[in-house]
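Here is a typical sample entry:
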Amino acid sequence: MPVGSRPDSRPLVCRALEGALRTSVLRHLVVVAPPDGDGVAQVRSALQDVPTGDVTVDVVAGGEDRVASVRAGLGALPGDVGIVLVHDAARAFTPPEVFDRVVHAVRAGHAAVVPALPVTDTVKAVRDHGDVELVTGTPDRAGLRAVQTPQGFLRETLDRAHAHAAGEGRHTDDAGMVEAAGGHVVVVPGHARAMKVTTPEDLAVAAAWVDDEGEASREPCLVVLSGLPGVGKTTLARELCRRTGAAHLRVDTVEQSLVRGGLPEEELGAQGYAATLALAADQLRVGLGVVADLVNAAPRARAAWETLAKEAGSRLVRVELVCADQGVHRSRVEGRAGEIEGHRLPTWEQVQEREWEPWPGAELRIDTGVTPVADAVAAIEEACR
């Protein structure tokens, strides 16, 4: 059933697939459909217009219960897949950074990882007592977490847990199966939007989110990533654009295109910035978001972006990127490989000689030496809302 009141509203499973595909960690995705005769065909039909990029997407029939359905999904994965995420389609609004946190923790050496939120309500343990329930205890909520998905596992850990639980239908999540098999499970931060849409009230909240997204999408966002070479502008820009569908405008690429087109490099000056600004104006004019990737140290250049946003009626998010750890910054500068034809990368000494002043009024200042890419991108996305 479509969620939201907009004409382009889509089923939850479509939103769940799109959300998963916005992460950078997937290469194969299996959608487990209801086991009835038309389940697979219906899901395939619903998903046919979802762009999947380089990710392989399969649809298979599920089983009689959750355990059997996950096992069916596991069976459809290639044998060389080493990390598996198990995600509920009902948690269709889970932000990409939650996927990234889970995978990062598995890659860091944890065999089973779940995202979760602290429990804020007081929880009571009860037992039946006639026509009412009798409270038998009040757990300390400081040690309680409300678990979400995606849950991440080493493939062999999940396979072993399923073999141990064969024939049991009591498990409500795969992490519980790992625990029952004697394994350890760790927790990473979840997100309020990763709620499970199961009740009419949940559906109303989800519909409001969808409708709010529609309102927000009418105002394209102009994100200007500024910072010295080597602070990670392009890495963040690519991830942000992949998640949001915004246009990535990299001034280095524009400048080298002008040079290859016949403009003498010594005459380049600010023309690369001017061309990038014009390209951004065109994208904003047709309603596309833009992520500008450039050093942008000069006050005049910064003012030009502010003027463009005002004239285009776009939300402006000015992001100042720094890398306070000089050792990390230097290693990045010296370890970069050129990927743009004709572009000469600056040396560490040249980077140190560049003049840089903080951007007054910048919405965000991010130290990329200590902030993971997923968290930085999430902060920028939040600022764009």
Notes: The mean pLDDT is 91. DSSP finds 14 helices and 14 strands in the chain. Residues 219-384 form a domain with the Rossmann fold fold (CATH 3.40.50.300).
